[in-house]
Specification:
The chain is mainly α. The chain has two domains: 153 residues, no CATH class; 157 residues. The chain is built from twelve helices and two strands. Strands 1-2 form a two-stranded antiparallel sheet. Strand 1 and strand 2 form a beta hairpin. The longest helix has 29 residues.
Length: 332
């Protein structure tokens, strides 16, 4: 049991480490899971990164353990990779992200991760062979050059985006149907402007994607034992006391509606500060600038605003609101 807990802990650390490295590797091709990832660039890097990183991890851990004469902890260390794959699978299922995953490709990738880790363990790690390659052999250097060449060629391939787009649209549709059945009465009780209803659902879908139920449960536990204000509920509303998903929706709807009623005046003041002349000061407000102001008040991050705006287009179409203008029907 102790060995299992030790290996599971290493697997969870690996999961967090891979995610952290991945998020900081966009410049070299890493693809982060997103609702709107249209095409996969640098596929070679992503496959190599996903398949090799767990094995590199257990090699480094094993080297450290051997260094401190903890050989018994190296035995069956390949299981760390198995637990890592299983933990990531469970996390994606618990996060409601299974609709976004290409399961055929994921199954092949996971199998390759485990097989490669086991082969390295059984042929190299467990026998205490030198983990660094011998570059004195010309043939080995030649194969390294060939491998780099193939990698660079494959890394320029862009995979088709149609299947990925379909999965993302299916994910948004499923989440919308679920949230509409649960929260529609709460939303429409306070908000009458139809376009704003689409905004609320879009924020909800995006917040739920970034903070799935399993993460919110952890946040709830922290909130119950602490007093620090934190983002809670499906709408990720800042609160210094525990709130559930329904309460977060009520609070978010109130916040969004209150700010929405002030948007015309806020945009007018912004135009004055930008030096608009009197003739253009009162020109018609565009939907995009209204939406941007609403979303910026909820979360000013540019990526957040852009991705939620794209969800608004989809949700507006599902509600048959795509041709509507914001009417500024505000309720007290």
């Amino acid at each position: 049991m102790i060995i299992f807990i030790y290996q599971l802990t290493l697997a969870i650390i690996l999961f967090l480490l891979v995610n952290w490295i991945g998020k900081h590797s966009f410049s070299i091709g890493y693809v982060e899971m997103s609702i709107f990832q249209k095409e996969e660039e640098s596929p070679a890097f992503n496959y190599v990164f996903r398949i090799l990183s767990p094995t590199v991890y257990i090699i480094i851990i094993s080297t450290i353990l051997y260094k401190f004469s903890l050989d018994n902890l190296v035995k069956d260390i390949y299981r760390v990779v198995v637990y890592y794959v299983a933990f990531r699978l469970l996390f994606n299922l618990a996060s409601n992200r299974f609709l976004l995953i290409n399961w055929a490709r994921q199954t092949i990738t996971d199998a390759a991760i485990i097989i490669f880790a086991y082969l390295v363990y059984s042929k190299v790690i467990i026998t205490k062979q030198n983990l660094m390659p011998d570059f004195n052999a010309f043939a080995e250097e030649l194969w390294i050059i060939i491998a780099i060449f193939i990698y660079q060629v494959l890394n320029r391939i862009k995979l088709s985006s149609s299947a990925s787009i379909k999965r993302k649209e299916n994910y948004i549709d499923k989440r919308f149907v679920k949230f509409k059945s649960k929260y529609h009465s709460i939303i429409t009780k306070k908000i009458q402007d139809k376009k704003l209803i689409a905004v609320v659902y879009s924020i909800m879908i995006y917040e739920d994607f970034n903070r799935p139920k399993i993460i919110r449960l952890v946040e709830n536990i922290y909130q119950r034992i602490g007093s620090k204000p934190r983002s809670l509920g499906v709408m990720q509303v800042i609160s210094n006391k525990f709130i559930n998903d329904y309460e977060s929706v009520i609070m978010a709807v109130e916040k969004i509606n209150d700010h929405y009623c002030k948007v015309p005046e806020i945009i007018k003041e912004a135009r004055i500060s930008y030096g608009y002349d009197s003739e253009n000061l009162n020109e018609k407000l565009e939907n995009w600038e209204i939406e941007r102001e609403i979303l910026a008040d909820y979360n000013p991050d540019d990526k957040y605003i852009n991705e939620v705006s794209r969800i608004i287009i989809i949700i507006s179409a599902k509600l048959n609101y795509e041709d509507l203008e914001y009417s500024f029907k505000c309720t007290e």
